Each structure stands twice: as structure tokens, then as C-alpha cells.
Amino acid sequence: MSDICAYHDQLINVRRHLHTMPEEGWCEFRTTAYLIETLRGYGYEVLTGTKVIDPESCLGRNPKLVEAAQQYALENGVSQAMLDEMEGFTGCCAVMDTGRPGPTLAVRFDIDCIPVQESHEPDHKPAKEGFVSERPGFMHACGHDAHMSTGLALAHWFADHKDEMKGRIKFLFQPAEEGVRGAAGMAASGIADDADFFLAAHIAMMCKSGEVSIKPYGFLCTTKLDVTYQGAPAHAGVEPNAGKNAMAAACNAFVQLLGIPRHGSGMSRINVGQLTAGEGRNVIPSKAVMKMEVRGETAEINTYMYERAVDIIKGCAIAQGCEYKIEKMGEAVDLINDEEMVEVLRKAAGAVKGVTVRDDPMNFGGSEDATIIARRVQAKGGKAAFFVLGADRPSGHHTAKFDVDEKALDTGLEVWANAVTALLAK
Amino acid sequence: MSDICAYHDQLINVRRHLHTMPEEGWCEFRTTAYLIETLRGYGYEVLTGTKVIDPESCLGRNPKLVEAAQQYALENGVSQAMLDEMEGFTGCCAVMDTGRPGPTLAVRFDIDCIPVQESHEPDHKPAKEGFVSERPGFMHACGHDAHMSTGLALAHWFADHKDEMKGRIKFLFQPAEEGVRGAAGMAASGIADDADFFLAAHIAMMCKSGEVSIKPYGFLCTTKLDVTYQGAPAHAGVEPNAGKNAMAAACNAFVQLLGIPRHGSGMSRINVGQLTAGEGRNVIPSKAVMKMEVRGETAEINTYMYERAVDIIKGCAIAQGCEYKIEKMGEAVDLINDEEMVEVLRKAAGAVKGVTVRDDPMNFGGSEDATIIARRVQAKGGKAAFFVLGADRPSGHHTAKFDVDEKALDTGLEVWANAVTALLAK
Amino acid sequence: MSDICAYHDQLINVRRHLHTMPEEGWCEFRTTAYLIETLRGYGYEVLTGTKVIDPESCLGRNPKLVEAAQQYALENGVSQAMLDEMEGFTGCCAVMDTGRPGPTLAVRFDIDCIPVQESHEPDHKPAKEGFVSERPGFMHACGHDAHMSTGLALAHWFADHKDEMKGRIKFLFQPAEEGVRGAAGMAASGIADDADFFLAAHIAMMCKSGEVSIKPYGFLCTTKLDVTYQGAPAHAGVEPNAGKNAMAAACNAFVQLLGIPRHGSGMSRINVGQLTAGEGRNVIPSKAVMKMEVRGETAEINTYMYERAVDIIKGCAIAQGCEYKIEKMGEAVDLINDEEMVEVLRKAAGAVKGVTVRDDPMNFGGSEDATIIARRVQAKGGKAAFFVLGADRPSGHHTAKFDVDEKALDTGLEVWANAVTALLAK
Amino acid sequence: MSDICAYHDQLINVRRHLHTMPEEGWCEFRTTAYLIETLRGYGYEVLTGTKVIDPESCLGRNPKLVEAAQQYALENGVSQAMLDEMEGFTGCCAVMDTGRPGPTLAVRFDIDCIPVQESHEPDHKPAKEGFVSERPGFMHACGHDAHMSTGLALAHWFADHKDEMKGRIKFLFQPAEEGVRGAAGMAASGIADDADFFLAAHIAMMCKSGEVSIKPYGFLCTTKLDVTYQGAPAHAGVEPNAGKNAMAAACNAFVQLLGIPRHGSGMSRINVGQLTAGEGRNVIPSKAVMKMEVRGETAEINTYMYERAVDIIKGCAIAQGCEYKIEKMGEAVDLINDEEMVEVLRKAAGAVKGVTVRDDPMNFGGSEDATIIARRVQAKGGKAAFFVLGADRPSGHHTAKFDVDEKALDTGLEVWANAVTALLAK
Q1: Which residues are involved in binding Mn(2+) (chains A, B, C, D) (predicted)?
Q2: Which residues on chain A are in Cβ contact (under 8 Å) with D255?
Q3: What residue ranges of chain D have pLDDT lower than 50?
Q4: What is the pTM of this model?
């Protein structure tokens, strides 16, 4: 498939352009506008707003940040009309129907950055070569810039080869993957419900340049929660008995949460990553907020951890006479690739020169909310798979010097194109 | 009132006899039988069983111990008929009506011992003089033997002086004062509801021989609780998630109980005095029992402590998925002597040669469930008071060498007789 | 002492001027400059900087806020030379020696505001009459503006009457009374060590206009602490064992702190008013900060609470493998007025028309760090007292509509002048 | 190896005899006497007492139970001389040297019972056939009776075949395997330090009759601990501040112990199986005892759990002002069979008619302290393996109706004899 080379410059340039303008989850208005315009330029029908995101199912979306992001987009060339079309929700779905009978393939690429200050040191290639983030405190430090670049190049390639294809392709550009927040809303919109096949991928992770892992495991099921306790303040000297101590509810919940028993059937995790409680030194604390997460090797174990946590959170509210609120802020599930799709990937990757196909179970070792969409597709009878496109990287994911070996972009596009061809070629 | 001397030998002998046969709370069958027979011998109508104890209101009564105590009584000369009359409940009420119109006076004496091994060392007078406890592990180490001896002598004296009196007298011999368990059931029986006056006393405490404190304060309100958590066992290695950890419920309740906020209006206390939990080292503990108590300077503060404790106990059950049970094991309230009765006591004690009347507020510094009956009498319009009869003692209450200066018995009887005379003399 | 009327306008105007420019503790550079210049205008020798504050003993002083406050002062007319003289420390001591042998009297007035947003509603007199705070978020809401105004008027009066006096007077204008932070440093400087007499006062509190309480009690001993735990972060999913969980140290310390046993000898208190811990949701928290306080009815009880707290804080650091740091942020002790000074106050206040002298024990119900200086004076053989100058107030201390009945200022100045006269008149 | 049949009756009879006289760990005096006498009858040199047990390294040995057990032994026919030889320590080592140069093989059999009341129901074979436990509350419910029977038969067989062998064999009859207590002391005695080969086995577990698992995994590393906190009592009403609350130390340690973070590298466990604390309801608890255990999939993880637990136990002692004591009560490690020994077992078992050799990794799912000796042999350059001899069982290990299919005894003896032959045949 030698004509893939034709998209090389696009792959690099688009990735570098997007790298300069990182936007965090649910705030990717400028990014989404760029995607929509580019995809429409290729001839796609592009849906956005509540057509691709179910507002009721949104997790971890902060209205204040959304508002500021819209303002930022306006100040950076996005039109009000475009913003209106988005209805406050980022991400989009580009559809191309070949007009020929055939299956529907949904492919998913995630688009958000993470809140990390990118390095400006000379040994950091984006700094040295001039495509470092222009937004202090934000950085594409998990490779979603490369994901989008690959998605756009694949869309371009598909449009160029539409006549050789049958069926229909849907490009899902998903917001807010970090914190596993965005997929739930996109899945709930039903946009992928008609997919016969679903594919998604991540760059780098545990694979080196040249490797393609087609049977990754260890997508940890996880639920992210914000817990708020509301009590009543009182003067700690004069009338401590009059207070309802929200910090007491939170701290006692914390110690019990850490003590949720290990599960005999497999790995579990729990963490309270942030706790903020109280007002003044001499006031019985009336409010406490915890940002926490549970994980499990399986959905059953994750559910076990979640349910035990809820019992504890509730029990401590009762014990301390406080009110409590639990908000789900993110969610991911596990995934087992359908064997049929694994075979597609094996051939697609195997056909690429220099690629080592890894079909041993490599541990993904993290959470990915593409699994939410994948499992919904599977539940409706479709077939789904997730693969990892190896790429050397000088530094870990989410760190200030993260970068990917750009040669992997060519490899990745070819694997994607081969897979699409295998599924949709006439 | 010189004829009081006539009862001196009785006072000493009865006290010493009872000292040899101590019985713990709710188990005083042999003691009660002795009291009933003696009082009937003086011509009293004596009520016992459910006529003087309301079974529904009994606190801290252990049926197994009761059964064993009945067996012990049978083996020590108490007839089955007498036991039948008691209906399983110890204590009695002896009534004598003068036949002349007049008020009803209720006087209360407590009858149980405590589970302490009495000293047999030669410097311990009961050992040296041969009236040491004959029951290993049990001892009249709080002076209730002296209380009963005084009560019987007073009853004897009253019967002898009946013709000089009006109205009616009721002698309440109350079981299970230790742990403040017995008064609730006696009060609830209504046996003292018709009392116009109520008097009770304690020997020794903070007063020396010759002192009579007529305005003691600091009767701490208290509630004694047994808390049981029931969870589910599981193998701690194989399937820890399958357990419901009752020890976790108890330990987390414990740490929260100690953290109940101090009350701005006055003194409060909390203690968990015993905690027993778990089965085997490698089993998730399925049962935990806590013996605890709360106290408060006022009924309001004690109630505050109790209610907060209940919230915590319940909340921790929910948090750990366990069942819980709270049993009230004892209860005492505070008491303020009615001024009218203080005056009676002032004169009654002041008339006794060698007595120093203490009407400054001396701190009783403990709980006494006579307060339960006293407050019930007050609530129904009667007048009540509690006084302390000083007595030198070689060792602290509840210790193995506790003893009282027996000269105080003569003093005490005279104070009592004077008070009864003041209230009931024709 | 009718000529006190001459200072009426000064009392009001100065108080209102200072009310417009509130500065918080350790940041009162503009205020201190104003005081120094005014006092020098009256002919006083004025010491400032490390001559009146011992830097080693400073509590709760935030260098960043100090720096910003110096900048604010520069921008509002304070000269660099004046700031240099202050050496970074606010507060001052004005000394006037009569040249005649006699005792040394130290009088203390506090100068800081609190961080409250003042009301601008028309029913709030400072708003209606145009002397509301000009600094958003800061307000003289505890009457220290009135204290300073009184202190300056008294200094003026004393300078005017110097020829009638003997001995020496020292006006201590103390920074950072809120949070009981400033007195420790001022006391440690030794500036009051030569005082034969010490007097301080507070306006309003539990006394109405016209009342002067000369025997207040209930100055709670207190120690304010900031506790920091430093652990080590780790990825909560991948390697939770690699972390040192500072939040675990803090939460477990919290639950144990609340459980410090009540003290049998009197009232104790503990509160953790703020807890901030953790970084990201999926990171083992590596840092936690608690703002807390202990109190005791006596120094012994406060010390008991403090020492138990330190044990717990240390023990939880060891238990969780974290480092810890305890910083003392404030301190106050209890005080018993010397009877000799009470007599001075009784006469000084009694001589003022319309004043009701309250010599019954009125509960101050809070902490005041003037006690630190007072107890140091007492320890060195001097006599000390603290009194409360009643003043009607429409709203509670520390609230947005706090204000004082300005008529109390005249009364207060007269009481002060009478007391000074009693102690220093030729 | 048809002559194995000759030992059939011995196998059954000895097992049944030992089944009637179960003795718990460190108390197997009667059992050890029986073993010693039997082995000496076969011509073995038998060592016992401190020659085979290092007293310093004994875990979980209760002197009071030992004393009672010696008394029981005396009453049941064991001579004082025999007891003297044992020096208070059960277990023994029987040595036979062929006189020919060759390797030393150590084989280990465990001898203690567990405290379970054996069933007397007719469907329980030992009850029906008359070899049920004669000691109420004790039962060979884990098959150690079969282990001993096999060991004795193997010793008999080896003595009968000594002329065909070279080198030396050592039979280790190890006490106190339950609670993984006995092996540490036996290993520390050095009795197996000269072994070139080490073999041990367990009956039943996860294998059915006819199966022999030669590569079991999942020997959980574990450490069993008893933790004692000693504080100081105080009257909970009068002077709660005077106490040092051992229950507070224990409960706070408990909640922190459960919260020890999961280990990223594998399975970990923690349990506090028993907690007993406190004296009376109104006494600040001065003593608390916890029986607990940690486990880890690897020695590294178990050590991690242990060290974190120690930090917590110590930290809570400091936090609550108590003393603490940690006693190691048991210990087991993991084990990987040496490949060379696996091959020996494969052939030894494979040669037995009707045996299915299981060389897939079967999960042992528990702890076994034979691993302690095995790892010590490996550390000194020897080769070691542990195998599981399948046996059908009507009920789970440690239950009242546990029993083993006695046909497995013949199979087992043949496997053992084959393995010994493979290692020691001339």
C-alpha cells in the first residue's frame, strides 16, 4: 500500500500544529472546529453537539471551564456559528457512506490534552523544532495530537479511496478521554450503535517503534468519583457540639475506604487523590470534598469496590450527621478484543514492512474509555478491538518531555488503512 | 433518741452476716429471701417479683447468671416457694401502714455486691474477724451490706415505733445498683409512685466518719450500652471480599465515638471499656462486642452523647455492611435535692451527737441510680433527697480491702430515724 | 476629669480614619507608620522593628504576605526609610519618661484587622457615613481601630499631662492579635520586662455600653498549629505500594486528635479547621496540611492537649512512613487579674459617670494574646490586669456589619486616664 | 515396585491409630514418643529435643499448653525419660546412613492436629469404623495422620532396602505445621543443612485420588503476628486524661493496617482475626491484643506487608502513649520446585499405575512451612521440591468430617519410594 507515503507530510504537519494548541477535556472547541472544517473539506458529513454527545451522560464536565474555553476559541478564530453548532459539547463524528451496501465501521480517536507544563529545554524536540505548546500549563503529553493527525489522514485516505470501498465509515473524534470522562456521553448518544465493527488504538504505551500489540489486556475497569460532605459549622471553642463535622465524615470515610478488603478474584485499587475540607482554624468544618477512584481487574471487581465505597461514604455521613453527594466523574471498563478483529489486525499489521506483531498478552496497565464504546458495540452485536501502535518515546506519558517517534505515524496509518481495507474493501 | 442504741448489735451482726454472702446484681436471691423473711418477721407486708420490678424495663440482666444464682439459692436453703414468689426478679418492697392519715415515705437501700476477690490478709478486718466473703470472686466492696443492715434496723425500729407514727412507710430494697441497672425496673414498676417523700443514702464515698453531706452534687447522668456487630466470616486469604468485617465496624465506631465533640455547656464523657472481636487469625471477623458508656453533667448532655453515639454505631454498621444491636445496660440521672428535704436532713443529722453537717456542695463524683427513682417521685409531685453518711474506710470503694468504720452505722441509723420521725411523727 | 472631652474629636476621627485602611496581622506597615508618626508628634520616643519584636518568636507570619504589604505601604505614602526602620516587623512601642522616679506602666493596644468583606449596605454605619474599609476583603471587624484610637488619644493626653506624672509609660501597639500570633514575639523582645504595671483592654465583647468588666475570666489557653505531612507520590493504579500516603497520615491523625480524652480537671477543646491534601485523583497523595488548634481551661490542660496532639501527629507520621512538621502559629494563655490592679480599675471605672462596674466573673469566652505579655510581666514581679470596655454593637465580632457604639470611646478613654493617673500621678 | 504392597496394612493401621490420638502443635509429645520408638525399632538413629528444634527460633509455642501436654503424655504411657530426652520440644529426626558414599536426602512429614471437634455422625468413616479422635476438641483434620503413616512406612521400606541404597536419608517429623509455626525452629536447628535433596508433600488439597501435582504454585508467603499494646488504666469518669488507652492504639492500628496499600506486583493480604481489649466498662482500657497475619504472593510482597504493618503498630503506640510488643507466631515462604527434582517426581509418579501426573501449575492456595526448610536447603546449594498427593475427601480440610481416601496412601508410598530410589539407589 505504497500510496500511504502520500500522506506523510500531512501526518507530521497536522500533528505538530495540533501539538501547539492543546485543549483539556470538554474544552476542545478550537480543536473540534479545526477537525470539523478539515473533515468537511474532505467531503464528510460531520455531526457535532448533542448529536454525538448525550448531555445527561456527560462525566466530569465543568461548566465554568467550558465557558472560558468557548471564549478562548472565539478569541482564536472560531466563529460564533461554529460554537453554536457545537451546543457547548466538543467532539464530532464524520460520516462517509460509499453508497454501496456493506457494513458500518466506526473508528475512534481522542482529542484532549492534559494539564502539564511542557518542557522548553533544548533536548525536548517540540521545543527545539518550534512546535511546543503555546498554552502554558497544557500539553498534548499523551499523544492525542498524533491520534487526531492519524484520524484525519485516514479520513483523507478513505475519501481518496471511496470508490474502492463499500458500506460506511464513521470517524468518532472523542473529547475528554483523560480522566475517562468523554466516552460515556458519546456512547450514550447512540452514534456508534449501528456499527458492525469498531476499532480504536493508542500510540506508544508499552510498545516500542515497530511493534503493534493486537491483544492488549489489563484495561482496568475504573470509576472516578467526587464525594462532597455537607455538615454545619460551629465555633470550635464555644459550642463544638453544635457542629456537624464534614471533615470527620471525610477522614473517617477515607480510612475505611483504604481498608476495603482486597478481592480474592483479582486486582483491585482505591485512591483518594484529593481532600479539601474546612473553613477557618476555629470553625467546625462544614464542608469536605474528596476526589477519588476505584479500579478492578474485571467489571465485577470494580463494581465490588464501588459498592463498598458507596456504603462507607453513606455510613460515615450518617455517623457524623452530615449530608453527602456522590458524583461520577469518569468511567472505563475492560475489553476483550473479538477474535475476528484480532485476525484483521494481525494481517493489517503483519503486512506493514518492519512491523513486529505482538499477539502475546501485553499489559496495557491503565484505563481507556474507548472500552465504553467498544463494549456497547459488542453488546449490540458488533465486533470490536483495540490495538496499541508502538512508538519510542524519550519520556513517560503525562510528563513534560513526552514525545513520540514520528516515524510511527506512517506505520500506524498503514496499519489503519490495511484494517479499513480488510473490512470495507469492495 | 437514745433507744437507737438498742439496735446496735443488730446493725453489726446483720451487716457482717450479709458480708459473708455477697451476690451480684439481679442474682441476689439468697439475699432477697433473707430480707423478705426478716421484714415479715417485723410485721411488714412484703412485695417482690414483678410487683416491684417491671421486667420490660430491666437493664443489664443476664438470664444465665440469674439461673445459676437461683440454683445457688436453692442449694443454700432458699425454698422453691420463695423463689417462685420472686418470679426471677430480686429485690423487694416492705410496706407498713400506720392506719393513720399521713404521707407516704419511700426509703431505698441497695443490695448487690461487686465481682471483686476479697482480701484475706490479716490487716483486712473482715478476714481477721471472720466475716470475710464466702463466695470467691464476689465481695460487698461498696458498702451495700451496711445499707441493708441499716435498712433492716430502721424497719425494725419503725415497727417498734409504729404507734408514734402516721401515714405509711415503704422500704425499697433495690437490686443491681452496680452498673446502675436495677433502679429503672423498680421505678417503672410504679412501686414508688405514691410516695410523698423519698430518701436514699450512700455510706462513705467522699465523707469521713462523723460527716453527713446533705447537698451532694455531681451525680453524673450516664447510659451504659452493649453494642454488638454481626457480619459474615470469610477466609482472609482466599476470599476476603466475601466477608463482612464486624471488627472493622467496631474499630471504626470506636475511633469515631472517642471523637464525639465536647459539649459547650458542660462536662461529657465517653468510654469503650471492653472490645472483643473475631474468631481465628485467618478468618474475617464476623462478630464484635463493645461494652461502653456515655456520661454528661446534665441529662441534656448525656442525651447528646448518647444520640451521637447511636448515629456513629449505626453509620459504621452501614459502612461495613454489618448488622448492629444496641442494648441499654444501665442508666442513672442527675439529682438536685429538694430544699424541703435538705432541711429535714439538716435537722435530723444536726441532732446526732458528734455529727458535722456538710451542706456545702460536695462532689459525689459518680453515678447512682437511686436518682432514677428520686426523679420519678419528683416528677409526680413528691419531694426527694439523697445524702451521704460519712464513714472512714481503709481502702477505696470496689477494692479488695474496702471496709467501713462500723461506728458509722449507729450514726446513720440515728440520722435515718430522726428523718423518718420528722416526716411521719404523729 | 472633664478635660477628657478635649480628645473626643480625635477619638472619633482617628478611629474612622483607621477603619478605612485595615491591614491584617504582620502586614500593618501603613498602620504602624501612621502610629509612629503620630506618637513622635506627641513627643514620644518610638521603637519599632526588632527592638519590639523578637523575630525568633514570631508566630504565624507569612513572608509573602509581608512583602506584598510593604509594597502596598510604599504605594500608599509610606517612605522606604520608615519601612527600613521597621525591619519587616510591624508594631511599635512609644516611651515617655517623666524624669521623675516612679514605676513603669506598660499599656497595650492591638492594631490588626481581620479578613472579612465589610458590608456596604445602608444600615451599616461605616458605609452610610463614609468610613467603610477601602480594602476589599479586609475590615476592622473586631474593634482594633477603636483600640488604636484610644491608645493614641491616651498618649496625647499623657503627653499633655506629663508634668503631673512620675515614672514612665510605655505604649505597646501590638501587631497580629487575630490568631493570637503577635504577642509572643513582642513579649520575647523584652520590651515589657521592666514594667511594674501592665494594662490592656478589649472593647465590646460580652459587655454593653456603660459596663466595664474588671474581673473577666475564661481567657482560654490555646495553641494554634499548622501540621504538614510530606510523603511520596506514586501512581495509584500501577504501583500504589511505592507511595507514602500523606493523606493517610493526616486523616488518621485527625481521627485520633478528635479522640484525645477529655481532661478530668476542666474544659478542653480541639479542632482541625482546615485540611488540604493530595494532588491528582490517581496519585497517592504526597502532601497534606492541617490547620488546627487546641484549647484548655488552664495552661496545664492546654499543655496536656498539645502534648497528646504532638504524640498523635508524630505517631501517624511513623505509621505511614511520612515526614512531618509542626509549626506553632499562635498562642494565648489564661490570666487572673492581680487584685491590686482590679482595685485600680474599680476606682478608675467607678469614677466615670454612667459606668456600671462589673466585678462579677464575666466569661470572656475566647482567647487574647495580651495574656502572654501580662503573664510575663507577672512572672517578673509586676502586676497586670485586663478589662473589658462595654460597647453596644449591632452585629457580632468578626461579622460584616460589626460596629461599636462610639460613645464608648469617651468612656474608655476616661477609664484609661483615671487608671494611669492612679498609678503614675505624682 | 510390587513389594510396596507389603506395607499396606501398616499404612492403614498406623494412620488410624494416630487418628485416635491427635495432639496440637508443640504439644505432640505422645505422638513423638510413638514415632521415636517405632523408628528406633526400624534401626534408625533418632534425634529429638534441641538437636532438631532451635528454641530461639520457635514460633507460636505456648508454655502452658506444653506443660499440660507433657502431663497428658505421662498419663498416657510416655515415660519421664522419653520426655526428658525431648527437652520440651516435639518432633524428631531419624537418620540412616547406608555407609556408602552418596548424597543426603531429607524428607519431611508433619505431625500436629488442629483444634476441631470431630464428627461422630455415622456417615463419617472414622466414627463408623471406630478410629475417631479420642480427644474432644482435637482432630487430625488436615491429614497429618496420613503423612506420619506414610513417613513411617517409607522409613520401614528404606530400612528393608538399605543394602540397595547409597548415601544417607533423614526423616524429619516436624511439629506445629498448623499456623506455620514449627518449620522455622527445625530449619534453624541446622538439621537439614547437609541435605543435597529435600522432599515434602501434602495429601489431598486440590488433587483428586490418582493425581500427583509435581509443580504446585501459590504457596503464599505469610507472617503470623501477635500484637500486644500495654497502656495505663484510669477511671473513665473521673480522670480519663490519666489513662493510656491501649484499645485506642489497637483500633487505630487496625484501621490503618487494613489500609496498607495493595502492591502493584501481585497479591497481598492482611487480616486481624482477633482483637481483645479492655477491662471494665468504666475503665480506660490498658491492654489490647491482636492476632493478625499478612500474606504476599512473593517473599518481597510479604515483607512489604510486614514492614508496613510494623510501622503502623509502632506509630499507633507512639500516638497513644502505649508500649507495644510484636511476637512472630508463624511463618511460611513461597517455593519454586527445582527443575531437577520435578523430573525425579515426574518419573516417580509416572511409574505408578493409575497415576495422572499433573505438571501444569496447580494453585496450592495456602501456606505451608515446609517451604521454610526447602528454601534453606536451596540456599545452601541443595535441590528441593514439594508435591501434592491427590486423595478424594468427603469434606474440606479443617472440617469436622474431613477424611481421606485411604487408597491414596498406597499410591503415595509408591511415589515416595520411587523418588527415594531415583535419588539414592546404588
Answers
A1: 142, 144, 178, 202, 398
A2: 255-256, 259
A3: 1
A4: 0.86
